[in-house]
Amino acid sequence: MSVIGVEGEERNDFTKAESKQVRARSLRLLGSLLRPLRLRLWLTMLVVLVSTAAQVAGPALIGFGIDRGLPALLDGDWLPVGFAGVAYLLTAASGALLIAWYIRLSTRISQAVLLDLRTRVFLHTQKLSLEFHESYTSGRIISRQTSDLDAIRELLDEGINQLVRGVLYMSFTAIALVLLDWTSALVLLGALIPLTVLTRWFQVRSQKLFRQSRVASAKLIVHFVESMTGIRAVQAFRKERRNEKAYGELVEDYRDVNARVIQLFGIYDPGLLLIGNACVAAVLVVGGFRVVEGELAIGLLLSALLYTKRFFDPIEDMAMFYNGYQSAASALEKISGVLEEEPSVPEPRHPVDLWKASGHVRFEAVEFAYTKDRVILPRFDLDVPAGQTIALVGSTGAGKSTLAKLLARFYDPSDGVVELDGIDLRSLHPKDLRRAIVMVTQEAYLFSGSVADNIALGKPDASYDEIVRAAKAVGAHEFIESLPNGYDTDVNKRGGRVSAGQRQLISFARAFLANPAVLILDEATSSLDIPSERLVQEGLTTLLADRTAVIIAHRLSTVAIADRVLVMEQGRIVEDGAPSDLIGGSGRFAALHAAWRDSLV
Amino acid sequence: MSATPHNTDHPAERTSAVRALFRLREYARPALPAIAAGMGASLASQLIALSIPQVLQAVVDGPLSDGDASAIWPLAGLVFGLGVLEAVMIALRRWFVLTPGTKVEASMRNALYAKLQDLPVSFHDRWPSGQLLSRAMSDLGLIRRWLSFGLVLLVVNLIVIVVGLGILISMNWMLGVVFLVCSIPLWIVGFRFEGRYSEVSRRSQDQAGDLATAVEESVHGIRVLKAFGRGKHALSSFRVRAESLRRTEIEKARLEASIWAWIILVPAVALAGCLVLGVWLASQGVLTVGELVAFFATATVLAWPIESIGFLLAFSLDARTATDRFFDILDSENAITDPERRVSVEQPLGELAFSGVRFRYQDAPERFGDLLDGIDLVVEPGETMALVGLTGSGKTTLTALTTRLYDVTGGSITLDGVDIRALSREELRTHIAMAFEDATLFSASVRENVLLGRPEFGEGDPALAAEAERVLDEALSIAQASFVYDLPDGVDTKVGEEGMSLSGGQRQRLALARAVAASPSVLVLDDPLSALDVATEARVEAELRRVLASTTALIVAHRPSTVLLADRVALLEEGRITAVGTHSELLRENEHYAFVISSLEDEVRREAAEASDLLVTDAAESSDPIESEAAEHTSTETGPIEREEANR
């Protein structure tokens, strides 16, 4: 098993070499995201360095004020205490301003990284073939682009801030303490031992618990969303009580793991405080004796105490950073996997333009297979002259849709060539390919927006009149007019109250508006009632008069408008001829047609 | 469309935040003692923290100025002891609220879920599931954190600030007042910041939601985007949203940056002032050095509670919004409830009658009439009735009324003469089972999905296991869903969101099997065969005919083949049933029916057939053998190939 692309994404038993490979991949991605920003990164580092140093200077200045300012003032000299006060004010002010600058700089960087990454993932998923989308499922690709990106955003927004500021703050505090009084610094050094042990324990436990908590919340969310989107079935089949029980169990699991996470903080947090307080007491003892001996000024002791106390402030945040880092790292691993996937239907390197397509389609020695031993379409040839209307007939799984998808270049053939007007589809410029060949599928997806917007997807610069004309041509005009706001009605919630048949009519209008040279209809009329289907067919006879068309339909009524019928079985074209010839014959189509006619009445 | 729900949850008149949050008490009551205990522990810990500087003062003014080294030990021991005690109190504060807090969250979550499942479909039509989800997850999490930390700290910190300022002023009133006065701007800035920040952060949440929608659509609609080559178009709308989110995030950072600057600057100004003043006071002999040290140590301890007030107020306002959003749902009135005095139909015969049934969707514009405008129809026990009408005529709506997914807005529906509103919903839905056109499968095994209407089989009663197996097999065979046996784990294969994705036709067959397996008195099927190919459809019909012989059924039909399953056909036209009769009668006598159900070519055919008057009997009798023959021709090997499709 390899870990290239999205393979092995769900596994958590990577070998050393594999983890290395995956980690290298995400680091490469991170590097490529940060490289254009490196100047700004350096600037940000500099700003945070100076601002933290300014902040750390505070306690030393207070100590200075007491030790030097007080005696001087007793002598009537305001200078040292004035200096301490003004310096305190200035360092704090510059620290504050620099911190503000730093927050803005770092947000700009993290937002630039996010925007770049978002766009890359979006573009790449759009480029990936349907084959990839079908096997990877929409849920996963959406969570790559939402929750995984959120994990990275959280790390960039909060985590890095906390880490950089925390590390600098702690090291500056430690340095200041060493400079002021290295004996106290030794005490602090001693405290590092229990601190490290405690923090390590916390990291290991919390990493495990956070993972469990994410799993528990994901389960809770899936169950919740499924019950809410399937509420009709839930209520109709009295699933409420059973759901409540199942959901209640998931809620309890989630509560339990959450409680354990909180408990972990309940130990870690007081633990840190305890170490900090003990340290303060120790510094007091060590410093106190020296003050008595006259080796240390009182102000210095106060500074040392304040530094010791402050040293522990950012630790909890930094321990949290580790968790954020973990989830962001695994998110980055998955995202880099998706980006590593090569589109199996790549864009041509040297695209050929085809400004005006006539619609002559040719399959030459085409074979389609997922793997060597799973051949879906064995080698075949097919020539469709421009303007011909073809009906593809056969049972579910006979390969009709696959053939149609090859023609629409949703898939590329494993062998052989599909040509439009003599140009291999693989080298045809995408803009020309999509303008020339349009496929309408059974599942008529509507995007949020108005009905008019959805039709206009076929031709973004279409005028309102053109949109209405397209709707009229397929018989969708009447029902659209009867919607609350006519063509401006919002089709929210995946089509909302627009019925399945009406959705198909809208997607037909969309295809009509696109006005392609080759039109592929894959079960595009299955949910229409008979009068609508009849209207669509009337529209089709004019629409298809001068263009190439491939029609797949279970209902054979469509065959009436076809010039030629292809019967498919197990991936092979077993009959090919004019409809009247085939009906008159004794082949499969004749039998099929007879059965269908009987089913009508 | 009327106002969307998320626009209506900020009513113009907002009740006070305190009163809104006070509503939480119904759920928080069991945790109140724990919260009070947590406050006690927290207060203790902070007071201890405040007392440590007093000890420091004693050290500085005592042994350090006297040079009495022996006194250092006990005082340092005291500092250590207080430090330990502070840590213990913090641990206790967390420990007290831990379990009760999470239990409150869990009970609210369960209550929300139960309420949502109880609310009628019309409610869910208005509320996108994302809106509901954010309430169930992040809002409730926020409320829990507020109850166990926010509320506790708000109360305690206010006390500590008062006590701390008292200490500072008692040490030296001048220093104390300087510190207090200099801290006031922070409160003002903090509170104003909260208003602007929460507005921006709400906007950023909305924009993140829009962006997620754009992502979702670009993935779900990938076929359309690819088919029309509109990837650029989708990208540009995605870019616009991502860009506006970025701008909002930067605006948010700007606000955050300014509040941070204030938070650092204000106490610093206060301390700088105190430093100069304090040193001067010490030089005048008003203040001892120890007192000065203690003053700074206390001020440092107080810095955090003071800084935190702004944040805690913001937190409380967020919690209030979350509480409002929670009660938005809990307060939603459920118009479809169980009757107070229930009637029961013990052994239903299955007579389903509609009398004067009217219905309109709540958000339909005034200018449109009722969608169903006085439906009168009786489906006799054991009878199969087909419901025919144009797309959008209200057939699906009519079927949804039978199980009270929606309630009629006029007239009544009766089952064996009993108004369905007099039955409990549970009982009604036991008697009537439905299959929907868009088949919903849940993330569970095929078995559980098909036996959804038979909860008694799900309890693992071994006595019922054999019966369950029989019902399952029979339902699957009726629905021609034998493909499930070829799935990786057979009938135990997980399907739905988290499981294997099935094709539309496969899902539809499972939904049909589910309705059949429920073995109801009345079966309501909404165009149950639309996604099937002709051969499979024919086989399903043959099997269904057997089941329907003994069951009352109402079937929405688009195709003549489906209509043939029915004893009688009802024609739905402009909100009324305009004709009821057999298929052949209606075909002969009703022009609209002929228009709706027959395609172009069989009009020609019918004309020819009418001449010989043999149409109906001929077609009905001869259809079976030919269909099954056709089925043999076309259906060879469909199983394995479909399995391959499912496997991909």
Description:
With 601 residues, chain A is of the alpha/beta class. Chain A folds into three domains: 1-181 and 317-344, ABC transporter type 1, transmembrane domain (ABC transporter transmembrane region fold, Up-down Bundle); 182-295; 361-600, Rossmann fold (3-Layer(aba) Sandwich), CATH 3.40.50. Helices cover 65% and strands 10% of the residues of chain A. Chain A has helices spanning 16-34, 38-74, 79-127, 130-136, 138-180, 182-229, 231-236, 240-293, 298-311, 315-340, 400-407, 430-436, 451-456, 464-473, 477-481, 492-495, 500-514, 530-543, 579-584, 588-600; strands spanning 361-369, 375-384, 389-393, 415-420, 423-424, 437-440, 518-522, 548-552, 564-569, 572-577. In chain A, the strands form two sheets. Chain A has a six-stranded mixed β-sheet, sandwiched between helices. Chain A has a four-stranded antiparallel β-sheet with strand order 2-1-4-5, covered by helices on one side. Chain B has 648 residues and is an alpha/beta fold. Chain B folds into two domains: 17-171 and 310-333, ABC transporter transmembrane region fold; 352-647, P-loop containing nucleotide triphosphate hydrolases (Rossmann fold). Chain B has 23 helices and ten strands. Chain B has a six-stranded mixed β-sheet with strand order 6-7-8-3-9-10, with helices on both faces. In chain B, helix 4 runs antiparallel to helix 5. The radius of gyration of chain B is 36 Å and the shape is elongated. Classes of the chains: A alpha/beta (601), B alpha/beta (648). Chains A and B meet through helix 2, helix 3, helix 4, helix 5 and helix 6 of A and helix 4, helix 5, helix 6, helix 7 and helix 8 of B.
- Give the averaged pLDDT of chain A, no decimals: 82
As laid out across the biggest beta sheet of chain A, the strand order is 6-7-8-3-9-10
Architecture of the largest domain in chain B, according to CATH?
A: 3-Layer(aba) Sandwich
Structural class from helices and strands of chain B?
alpha/beta
The residue ranges of chain B in which pLDDT falls below 50 over 5 or more consecutive positions are 1-13, 606-648
Query: What fraction of the residues of chain B are assigned to beta strands by DSSP?
Result: 5-15%
Could you give me the name of the CATH homologous superfamily of the largest domain in chain A?
P-loop containing nucleotide triphosphate hydrolases
Count the helices of chain A. How many?
A: 20
Helical fraction of chain A: 55-70%
